[in-house]
Amino acid sequence: MPESRFSRRIGDLAFTEVGSAVRASSVVCLPMGSFEQHGPHLPLNTDAVLAEALTGRIVERLGETYDLWQLPLVPVGLSREHAWAPGTLSLSVAGMTALMRDLVRDIARALPARNLLIVNGHGGNRGLLEALAREARFEFGLNLAALHLGPLMSAARERAVPEVHAGCDETSAMLALAPQLVRREALGRLAAPPDAAGVRSLVLDPAASFPWTSDDPRIAVEGVIGDARDASAEHGAAIVARVVKAADGVLRRLLEPPAVQG
Prior knowledge:
The chain has 262 residues and is an alpha/beta fold. It has a single domain (3-254), classed as Creatininase (Rossmann fold), CATH 3.40.50.10310. It contains 10 helices and 4 strands, in the order ααβαβαβαβααααα. The protein has helices at 3-7, 15-21, 46-66, 93-110, 126-140, 149-153, 168-177, 184-187, 196-202, 233-254, and strands at residues 27-32, 68-70, 115-120, 143-148. Strands 2-1-3-4 form a 4-stranded parallel beta sheet, with helices on both faces. The longest helix is centred in the C-terminal third of the chain and has 22 residues, at 233-254.
């Protein structure tokens, strides 16, 4: 068994090892992030860092159980809501659609695995990925699911301001997984978050969609939608454990045989 087999990263395999290491029943895991402002305390690549690190934890903990293999990160997504901030990069809807269709098609061509889990670190990518999952199944013969990290990191609970972007949960996850990238000195000087009503009506209302942006003072302060001042590595470790546990259930469902139609 080659040493690269142990890592469960596709990129560590030689091309001569792919056919024997990866099987049709394997699950390839594709981390996907974004490159956008995350307030004054987190780096532009926060979503990419979290998606790649959490994919690594999922593969490490569940890799043998489900025969998981990790693909390279897709680092840029749909981030026009943060385009006001220096450094933010965003694909267009057409550009991301073309990129993801080409990538998924080539995964189906290049690898024996028929199962794909996209670990999505950015909420703005979700709608496109939901549509892509259906195309991947019917056009490319792939069984696909997307694991969205945002709702898993910010489990539903009562807060003064809902956690949407660069708040307590996301900052805590970074403190647990990449503490060297958190500007701790900025946490103490973050302003008080805005009233929750604007966030719930403009961002979280399931019955209406608005082209909100993170420089809107009704919902954000310095690009933050949430309150990062109480973030901690301990809370971040609990979030990591919650994500891995949820991934177990998603993978089990992904690999269930489809129901027989009458």
